[in-house]
Design brief:
This is GNAT family N-acetyltransferase. One of its GO terms (molecular function) is acyltransferase activity, transferring groups other than amino-acyl groups. β3 (about 70-80) and β4 form a beta hairpin. The longest helix is centred in the N-terminal third of the chain and has 15 residues, at about 20-35. The radius of gyration is 16 Å and the shape is globular. It has a seven-stranded mixed sheet with strand order 1-2-3-4-5-7-6, sandwiched between helices. The protein has helices at about 20-35, 40-50, 55-60, 100-115, 130-135, and strands spanning about 10-15, 65-70, 70-80, 85-90, 120-125, 135-145, 150-160. The chain is an alpha+beta fold. α1 runs antiparallel to α2. The chain has a domain at about 10-115: Gcn5-related N-acetyltransferase (GNAT) (Aminopeptidase).
Length: about 160
């Protein structure tokens, strides 16, 4: 008996039809993976970010890419017109399988194609090492507050060849 092949992964531009699934994916990824590095209060406030109007605005207004398998979104990344990479999330069931790497590689190639030479981001404890492997440099740490709960993030930048 021949083993069933899993459908191929593909990267597609983020479109309006993806948004409901990406809101769910974000919240699910944070709630399931967050407790590994963050307190229950931090996870809750982070997950609530999916309900903030600015979250959907970023999905609509920024450059974005979605990794799909059989038309099901498994992860996504967004890049603002000024070179800020603000969202990079992978479904909790598919983390640590190279999808974050694939999405970040895609976003950096997209940035180069758009003529960007500097990319900035704030990384969580989850994605910090991924960004370092892609040539990002630590600029510093920052403390932000969401719903009265503090978070420490890694501020990073990456200079792209011009």
């Amino acid at each position: 008996m021949t083993p069933a092949l899993s459908p191929a992964l593909c990267i597609v531009p983020l479109g309006e039809a993806h948004i409901p699934a990406l809101v769910t994916l974000f919240e699910q990824a944070v709630r399931r993976s967050g407790p590994e590095h963050y307190s229950a209060e931090q996870v809750e406030q982070w997950a609530l970010g999916s309900q903030h109007p600015g979250f959907v605005s970023q999905l609509r207004e920024h450059h974005g890419w979605v990794v799909e398998q059989a038309n099901v979104p498994l992860g996504f990344v967004t890049l603002s017109p000024d070179g800020h990479l603000s969202l990079l999330y992978v479904n909790a069931d598919h983390q640590r399988q190279g999808l974050g790497n694939l999405l970040l590689t895609t976003a950096l190639a997209g940035a180069r194609g758009l003529g960007m030479t500097l990319i900035t981001t704030e990384a969580s404890a989850f994605s910090y090492e991924l960004f370092l492997r892609h040539g990002f440099t630590l600029t510093g740490l920052e403390c932000v507050e969401r719903g009265g709960v503090s978070f420490t993030r890694h501020r990073l930048h990456c200079c792209l060849p011009s």
